[in-house]
Amino acid sequence: MLGVALRILRRRPLAEEAVHDAFVQIWERAASFDPQRGAARSWIYAIVRHRALNILRGEVRTDLTADFDDLALASPDESPETVVAMLSEAGALRRCLDRLEPDKRRLIVLAYIHGLSHGELAARLAIPLGTIKSWIRRTLISLRECLA
């Protein structure tokens, strides 16, 4: 559960807080669990995920992006283009990534290889958060269609 919270919040103290709050909520609402609706494990993970997302939403947006300079790529070898180039020439993912516009490919690599959040991408690229979210969504749909 801590791993799920860490993946969302990216900061251990906040993730621990989310897990703690989730356990308290699970304890208080245990009677509301309905095994007919799904497995207990899924119910618990959903509570942790929702708690982590609520903590994330409750933070000031600048807190998510204030330190984005510290997230700069470690070396020029790790640029999005280099990461794509390291994929197998024959791989389907490589072919599909090569078909994307360079800006969209960079966005996907920064998000899914380097682990930047939508807020961090918006701050780094100076693009509105809503635009980042819609570009990522449309690009992932395009990749899914290409890989199918």
Compressed to H and E, one letter per element, the order equals: HHHHHHHHH
- So, the CATH homologous superfamily of the largest domain? Winged helix-like DNA-binding domain superfamily/Winged helix DNA-binding domain
CA gyration radius, whole angstroms: 18 Å
Assign the CATH topology of the largest domain.
Answer: Arc Repressor Mutant, subunit A
Q: Into which percent range does the helicity of residues fall?
A: 55-70%
| CA(first)-CA(last) distance | 32 Å
- Helix/strand-derived category reads mainly alpha
**Uncertain segments:** 60-77
What is the count of structural domains?
2
Percentage of residues in strands: under 5%
Query: Major sheet, described briefly?
Result: none
What is the strand tally?
A: 0
In the CATH scheme, the class of the largest domain would be Mainly Alpha
CATH architecture assignment name of the largest domain: Orthogonal Bundle
Query: What is the global morphology?
Result: elongated
Residue-averaged pLDDT: 78
Number of helices: 9
Please give the oligomerization state of what you see. single chain
